[in-house]
Design goal:
Blueprint lengths: L14 H9 L4 H8 L3 H18 L3 H8 L3 H10 L16 H6 L7 H7 L3 H8 L16 H7 L3 H10 L14 H5 L5 H11 L16 H7 L5 H5 L16 H5 L6 H8 L16 H7 L3 H9 L13 H7 L3 H14 L8 H10 L2 H9 L6
């Protein structure tokens, strides 16, 4: 049929015969060629193409209709053709089938595509169906709620949560939940998503990813004011450690310019500012290491303890070794004010000062009666 003229009287044949002819054409291209001859044959041919696509190509044309926002085509196929609404194949017109399959490498379903493109009308059509798989996870382990949360799609998150059929704590291949993804971005849309997720009774606010990071760790590392929403939740564990032993407070000391995040954590009722990481270092040592003098002073004002790490290095020794003269002075003054005597654990401080040849720090140590000889 392809490349040949179509007899003008074909339209006068019984529809059953025409459908038989179409059904026996050698390729989709042949069917399309026939469809172009007249409006009547076009209607019959297109219907046959839909049926063939659904039967033999896993409804890839349906996914293409969703991808391109063709709600008319989506409605038509849902009403009359029973497509696979969970297909992960994507029609890519004009390209080879191998390219068609790679165009959806993440294996998104139509409802995931509708969420990511914010096609609300198409999303609602799919949402109300009983055959959409809301538990499906794509190649990266993301479910439809995870996609909605990552894009800050408030409308879709609200509708999905209202169905109460999705595990809100489902983790992707990196162990991240919808909440863990939403807290990474500081936009009004993402804040609204976080609020909605936190209102769900089943939410596990402390669910950790493969690095041991909870949503609180992630929001602190992102320097995101959303931490205030997380800290207001009654089940939040403010002292939970990551795989490397870091608490949210320790992470907050790493950015001297972000005093809001640090102070918000420091003044939380349950915070343990003296907790040690896997090397025995406290938030005070982390602050010294990062030259975060404001954090050091805030911790000292709160009465943090002077705890050596597992190698025996005291906070003072760390400050001397990193040559943080202003912080050395703060630590010495705090000890003096609190009447804390210097012990053998502090001896490395003097040796380090001598090794570095830092005269100013040696003078400070001598002033506070620490032997530098």
């Amino acid at each position: 049929m392809e490349g040949q003229a179509v007899p003008q009287n074909i339209v006068s044949l019984p529809i059953e015969i025409i459908l038989m002819i179409i059904n026996n054409l050698p390729s989709h291209t042949s069917i399309l060629s026939l469809a172009r001859t007249c409006k009547f044959l076009s209607g019959l041919s297109v219907r046959m193409l839909y049926q063939l696509n659904i039967r033999y190509e896993n409804s890839s044309v349906f996914h293409w209709a969703v991808e391109t926002g063709r709600i008319d085509l989506v409605e038509n196929m849902l009403c009359g053709y029973s497509p696979n609404v969970n297909t992960v194949d994507m029609l890519n017109p004009g390209k080879a089938r191998s390219e068609t399959l790679t165009s959806n490498a993440d294996k998104l379903t139509p409802i995931m595509t509708a969420v990511r493109r914010n096609y609300q009308s198409i999303f609602l059509l799919l949402l109300e169906r009983g055959d959409v798989d809301f538990t499906y996870q794509d190649n990266l382990g993301r479910n439809v709620l995870r996609h909605a949360a990552s894009t800050g799609n408030v409308f879709c998150v609200q509708k999905l949560l209202a169905r109460n059929t999705i595990d809100i704590n489902t983790q992707d291949k990196l162990g991240r939940t919808a909440l863990a993804i939403a807290v990474k971005r500081d936009t009004k849309r993402h804040r609204d998503v976080v609020r909605m997720l936190l209102e769900v009774d089943e939410i596990d606010i402390n669910r950790a990813d493969k690095n041991g990071s909870t949503p609180l760790h992630i929001s602190v590392r992102s320097h995101n004011p959303i931490i205030q929403l997380l800290l207001s939740h009654p089940m939040v564990k403010v002292n939970q450690i990551e795989n490397n032993g870091s608490t949210p407070l320790m992470i907050a000391t790493h950015r001297p310019d972000d005093t809001l995040t640090f102070n918000t954590l420091l003044h939380h009722t349950d915070v343990n500012m003296d907790q040690q990481d896997h090397r025995g270092r406290t938030a005070l040592v982390h602050a010294i290491y990062r030259d975060n003098r404001q954090a050091v002073r805030a911790l000292l004002r709160k009465g943090c303890r002077d705890i050596p790490d597992f190698r025996g290095m005291t906070p003072l020794s760390w400050a001397v070794w990193k040559q943080r003269k202003p912080i050395v002075e703060d630590l010495l003054a705090d000890r003096s004010a609190r009447g804390i005597a210097f012990s053998d654990a502090d001896n490395p401080s003097s040796r380090l000062a001598v090794q570095h040849g830092n005269v100013e720090i040696m003078k400070l140590l001598i002033r506070y009666s620490i032997d530098v000889n």
